[in-house]
Write a structure and sequence with these properties.
Helix content of chain A: 55-70%
Order of helices and strands of chain B: EHEHEHEEEH
Number of strands of chain B: 6
CATH superfamily of chain B: Response regulator
Oligomer: heterodimer
Number of helices of chain B: 4
CATH class of the largest domain in chain A: Alpha Beta
Strand content of chain B: 15-25%
CATH architecture of the largest domain in chain A: 2-Layer Sandwich
Structural class of chain A: alpha+beta
Largest interface: A-B, 20 and 21 residues
Number of strands of chain A: 7
CATH architecture of chain B: 3-Layer(aba) Sandwich
Radius of gyration of chain A: 38 Å
Shape of chain A: elongated
Number of domains of chain A: 3
Number of domains of chain B: 1
CATH topology of chain B: Rossmann fold
CATH class of chain B: Alpha Beta
CATH topology of the largest domain in chain A: Heat Shock Protein 90
Strand content of chain A: 5-15%
Distance between the termini of chain A: 88 Å
CATH superfamily of the largest domain in chain A: Histidine kinase-like ATPase, C-terminal domain
Largest sheet of chain A: 5 strands, mixed
Chain lengths: 431, 125
């Protein structure tokens, strides 16, 4: 027997559940904790809803299902006709069974399906006439015609209802599709807002952190320089090596600081119409030494006569050098870096149209589970100390400030990474 | 050879101490350090430096204002000033200093040899 306290608690919970309170409380608490909410409880896709709706699939058949249903309806009509013949039409009930295939046809194929099935059913009963069974229910042609008329009435009426229901189903499907679309858009906007807020916080922090860290770094650097001078007079290999390593550490930290300052300042652009190919050529000159050092072949295919695009030359060069250096580092020694530019067809000012720069390398590529995180600040796939994790996030920020796009994907069917950067072509045509 | 007088002004005490130690170790400079802007002006008038190394961001009166007040002083207006700044990046300034808006800037952290080259360039003008 349940204890009174447990019983009271159970009754209270049951009452709360009936009111929906308990469920709501749990849902709200969970939703609040599990951000983003939509990931925790995603709505069903239209395909999933269709998959569950077996009745809906059979009531609006297409392809093989339609054939199966047609054969089933014809089979039923034939079966009922046979029953009527076998009983000599004396059993009125058998004749009523004919409504079954007619209503089924109307439900599945609408008004025309219902009328068609009614006509077929009427014709199927036609051979009964020569039997001339006086005691039967179809003993006269007028009786037969009346029966066909009644079949047609039932078929048409059922079909009409079916058409109305199908119309409602279509409308609901469309509403569901729009809701799903709106949900996807909201989810995407939410993610974008989170990302933007995150980047803004990092940007705000960056400048402050950079300043605060640079002073201690300056002290360490000068300390290293002082000790370097001191140990020149008293040679001690261990001490000299230690000092060198300290100097390297200061340089690494300074590189991170530089990345942070780049990140916090990339809002300020100085846009001037530029030839993208020239900016690429200038950037390639700066990494030429690295290409030669690592024996990497350069496959350059720059389309001439590209329209000029509004660029901040130095910032875009910073992006290109970052992309090229990432490619070189991923390839190690030997490999090919392909750089090409082109202009997809379309009119100036068309949405999404722009001058494209695409690089491809033959490196190891990026693990698929990390591709989505590549543009996040401080995310790096490089070994500790080799990358700040800010290069690509700064690059994306710079490209987005140019109203351009940047994407990075693993190449399909071969090794390496493809980076595509698009700059919008301004519509300079006179109004 | 007469040692050149350098006045180092920065609110970071350890940094000014380190600069003094490094520059004096070369035996070419006499260094005086100050860690606040008001004291810097008084020290400059008294010390009469050949060059002033000045931090930009300091509490109270910043480096820019200190420089403006020094330029108004008849005895100090010709004294070269080198700004040591944590808010400029290495690639925005040359390693041995760059002229930004008429003033010479060095980005922190600065290497000693770059600092000495910068000082010599300014003193040699």
């Amino acid at each position: 027997m349940a204890r009174p306290a447990e019983s009271a608690k159970r009754n209270k919970t049951a009452a709360a559940n009936r009111r929906g309170e308990g469920y709501c409380r749990v849902r709200i608490a969970k939703d609040g904790m599990n951000q983003p909410k939509n990931e925790a409880n995603p709505p069903e896709t239209l395909a999933a809803v269709e998959e569950k709706n077996w009745a809906g699939r059979w009531l609006s058949p297409k392809g093989p299902r339609a054939t199966v249903l047609t054969l089933l309806i014809l089979g039923l009509i034939a079966l009922v006709s046979l029953l009527v013949y076998e009983t000599g039409g004396t059993r009125y009930a058998w004749l009523h069974l004919m409504y079954l295939p007619i209503i089924l046809a109307a439900a599945c194929f609408g008004v025309y399906g219902g009328i068609g099935a009614a006509l077929v059913a009427g014709l199927a009963l036609g051979p009964y006439m020569p039997m001339n069974v006086t005691s039967g229910v179809l003993q006269t042609p007028s009786n037969w015609l009346f029966r066909i008329g009644f079949f047609l009435l039932v078929g048409a009426f059922s079909g009409l209802i079916s058409n109305m229901l199908n119309g409602q189903i279509k409308r609901l499907k469309e509403i569901h599709r729009r809701l799903l679309q709106a949900h996807e858009e909201l989810k995407s906007a939410q993610m974008q807002l989170i990302q933007t807020a995150k980047l803004e916080s990092v940007g705000r922090l960056a400048a402050g952190v950079a300043h605060e860290v640079k002073n201690p770094l300056a002290i360490i650097q000068l300390g290293v320089d002082y000790l370097t001078g001191t140990f020149k007079k008293v040679p001690n290999p261990d001490c000299q090596e230690t000092i060198l390593e300290m100097g390297d550490a200061v340089r690494r930290a300074d590189t991170v600081i530089k990345g942070l300052l780049d990140f916090s300042r990339s809002e300020q652009l100085s846009l001037v119409p530029q030839d993208l190919n020239t900016v690429i050529e200038e950037s390639l000159v700066l990494v030429k030494h690295e290409l030669t050092k690592h024996q990497i072949a350069l496959d350059k295919n720059l389309t001439g006569q590209l329209p000029r695009v509004d660029l901040d030359r130095n910032k875009v060069k910073q992006v290109f050098i970052n992309i090229f250096m990432n490619a070189i580092q991923s390839m190690g020694d030997n490999g090919t870096l392909s750089v090409k530019t082109f202009l997809p067809p379309g009119a100036p000012g068309d949405a999404g149209r722009g001058v494209v720069m695409r690089t491809e390398d033959t490196g190891a590529g990026i693990p698929e589970d990390k591709v989505d995180k590549l543009f996040e600040p401080f995310f790096t796939t490089k070994p500790v100390g080799s990358g700040t994790g800010l290069g690509l996030s700064v690059s994306r920020k710079i490209i987005e400030l140019h109203r351009g796009t940047i994407s990075l994907v693993n190449r399909t069917g071969t090794r390496g990474v493809a980076v595509t950067i698009t700059f919008p072509v301004p519509d300079r045509s006179p109004l | 050879m007469t040692k050149k007088k350098i006045l180092v002004v920065d609110d970071e005490v350890a940094l000014t101490r380190m600069l003094k130690r490094n520059l004096e170790a070369t035996e070419r400079f006499v260094v005086r350090t100050e860690n606040s802007s008001p004291a810097a002006l008084a020290a400059a008038r008294e010390f009469q430096p050949d060059l002033i190394l000045l931090d930009v961001m300091m509490p109270g009166v910043d480096g820019g204002e200190v420089a403006a007040q020094l330029k108004e002083d008849k005895q100090l207006c010709q004294t070269p000033i080198v700004f040591l700044s944590a808010i400029v990046k290495k690639d925005e300034t040359a390693p041995t200093g760059s002229n930004i808006g008429g003033a010479t800037f060095l980005a922190k952290p600065v290497k000693l040899e770059d600092l000495i080259t910068c000082i010599e360039n300014q003193l040699g003008k």
